[in-house]
Amino acid sequence: MLKVSTPGLATTVQDLGRPGYYxxxxxxxxxxxxxALRAANLLVGxxxxxxxxxxxxxxxxxxxxxxxxxAVTGAELPVLVDGKEQVTWTSFAVKKGQTLSFGFLRSGxxxxxxxxxxxxxxxxxxxxxxYAIGALGGFKGRPIAAGDELPVGAGKGAAAGRNVPxxxxxxxxxxxxxxVLPGLYWHRITAEAGRQFFADTWKVAPEADRMGYxxxxxxxxxxxxxxxxxxxxxxxxxxxxxxxxxxxxxxxGGTEPIVLHxxxxxxxxxxxxxxxxxxxxxxxxxxxxHTPSRFVEVTMDQALAARxxxxxxxxxxxxxxxx
Amino acid sequence: xxxxxxxxxxxxxxxxxxxxMSLEAFFKSLxxxxxxxxxxxxxxxxxxxxxxxxxxxxxxxxxxxDDMLAEIKSLEKQADKADPVINTRIIEIPVFYNDxxxxxxLMRFRERHQDPKSTDIEYGARINxxxxxxxxxxxxxxxPWFVSMVGFxxxxxxxYQMVERGRQIQVPKYLxxxxxxxxxxxxxxxxxxxxxxxxxxxxxxxxxxxPMPIYDPEQKISYLRDFMCLFNPxxxxxxxxxxxxxxxxxxxxxxxxxxxxxxxxxxxxxxxFNRNIxxxxxxxLEALHA
Lengths: 323, 290
Hints:
The complex is a heterodimer of chains A (323) and B (290). Helix content of chain A is 15%, strand content 30%. Chain A has helices at 34-44, 191-199, 281-284, 300-322; strands at 2-6, 12-14, 52-56, 61-64, 68-76, 79-81, 84-86, 92-94, 99-102, 107-115, 149-150, 176-182, 202-208, 212-216, 238-243, 248-250, 258-260, 267-270, 272-276, 292-297. Chain A starts with a strand and ends with a helix. Helices cover 31% and strands 25% of the residues of chain B. Chain B contains nine helices and twelve strands. Chain B starts with a strand and ends with a helix. Chains A and B meet through β15, β18, β19 and α4 of A and β1, β2, β3 and β4 of B.
């Protein structure tokens, strides 16, 4: 059991997600940086998809009810056990009664705290992930709060000192580059607007959460003249409400792009210019507000090659931690 | 109708059946998504029908995007030939129009509205040519509506009015979305009505509220024990106007676990419907109240 002394900002229980219910408006959920989530679990000897805590911008303070092996991956910040600093991306032992706490964020946005045995909340539709908008899954369907007692599963835990070397981690660059496959309603904008979209440097807006990341600072998008179809609404950025792919980039009113993430709204009435490729979705979870960002146009072949690169990196992490 | 295929990144195929909304486009979307499900194409992880489009999520490690696209395209001809007939349900939803809770909320967000001097339902009545709010409520609740999509958030139905296009109620969304909408608000934007399954942000005009929960993640409500979402795409809804007393009674019945929604199985035939819409709707309502 983990007793929550302070919860952090919006700390939630997450695993790899809940596929199969998007047609009813229930999104995948799960860790925004799934590479970091998998690595944290592998470090402590859990299954890759065990439930962990995802904390954004600041960590919680947790008192351990049993001995456990712990690892913290993702963003960089000081990790402390009874005030003594530990190394990130590295497994360490915590004794019953000790307190895990965190210092101020140095880089990145989200940390993943894996505990041997996993966070053992009940499965909801096959997953332990929290979907807070729908009060589903996780700990009572919500972010953790002070006083909560989080159940931890049985698990021996791996040894302390196991490490994911820096060369096997991925971080967003400066500016962050998010690769995009144009499509969906790309034809609704002018060729010049399309060129400009990829040329501009955008900044992550403060409205950036598990549902989606908003960007601002680029030029407004110009639309191809077009009579609005019946049922779509009068603004040129409106469409007859349709499904939204994960990673899809909608631009309401043509001004501020929003990239949908793991707690996506499943559909709505805004056109989309394309979709961030699967290989770069983890990077979005590590972007802080105000981070300069660029969208980079790629082809499907490049998207698939990037996906293979990510899998190869994960395979190396698995191999490094298999022993 | 011209079908348009596109990729949503490396994990989604997005198919627009038609740019504009129609029951024909909705039926084709439903028919194609059913065909995708029946075909059991390997690698498919999500099948999502929408109003006049649909989306398939797949695992590109299992099937290449081009192969996935070809599989879906191959189902289009079959869907075109399919009879637009479905076995579905008609569900009665009680609505307390002009209720105090949505009224309190809409008054808080007047500066985001096209017409700050009217309420949402007064505005909806006026711009759709109804002489009174009572006439507008009669029109909104007079015909059945199709659940043409479920989504946005968990369990939220988009509803398409089953009348000729000229008689369909249309209203713009708020100028800027509200940051709050009461749970179970009956809203309307463009040509679609909806029921907000959870409290939260929203841009649709607010006409009333239903006492009948449609989403229960704890699955404690009697009629949501089998599954937490009430609606499926293809369901038919009939609104039933109620007053404060009936509303309070229904809320008490839901809380006590004795609320039983009126739900009947029906067959819907689009060709028959198009031949005589009012007569067909009358038959559906007969089935509901049988």
